[in-house]
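Checklist before submission:
- one chain only
- standard amino acids only
- sequence pasted in full

Submission:
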Amino acid sequence: MSDPLEPPGLPALSDATIDAIVGHAGRSTLPFQRANREERHATAFWCNELVETSADGEVVRQFLVTAGEPTRVAMAEFTLRPELCTPVMSADKLLMTDFAEGWTHLGDLGVAVMPTTGLHAHGARKGWRWTTDEITDAIAATEQDIVDLGDGPVAAYLLGHVADGDGTREQAVVVGEIARTGNGGIHWNGDLPQGCVGAPVFIGARLGGDGHRFKLVCVGVAVDADGHHEVVSFDRVRTALAAFHSDKSTDRSTDETALTVEPRRRWWRRS
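Returned file contents:
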């Protein structure tokens, strides 16, 4: 990973937050673009949704998350990093046909999700497996986390893959600020390098009065909206996912192209 894109003189909380992001989510991101073309560069990230908890462990639904607009291409390529699979692949690109059809767009949020079943199946056929981090319910922002942002700007950190023209798609921590807007949205204040749309955005939320403890919160997904950079918060993503699954369970005419997979492969259990 390249050095964080940060101005000098940031306080200790910022350094600790960056370390936590890299340590807990460094392997969660996956850069992609239109295949064989230098366009539609974006970042996706691995995520899971907690379905239930039992004595046997947690049942989760796993998927990729990104900004919706860059997914609207027929063929795309993911850039693979050695640390994302074992054994390490000889190729550094993963080509996907019918790419647009693989994503479900969550209403008008500007966010799209893809189940990871096909990615796991591809690795199994080729003799390797994914070794990724995931954004989990433990760090994905709740509605209360968004309320706690307050009204002023808050230091924020985007984990994305920069498209600088040499094809490497290096991962970088991009430092900026987020602030809630009057219409209930969240605005990203700062540069958003090419290739970083769709990336996860984090904050370090202080705990207690001593200022020495904090929790890592993944606020949401960076998207472009009307020429501005916005962050779609995870509480809104959760609501949209819940509505989608509810619609599917009651209306079999719903287009299930993106999220329908074999039942035995749909659920991923962690012990």
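Reviewer check: The chain has one domain: 12-248.
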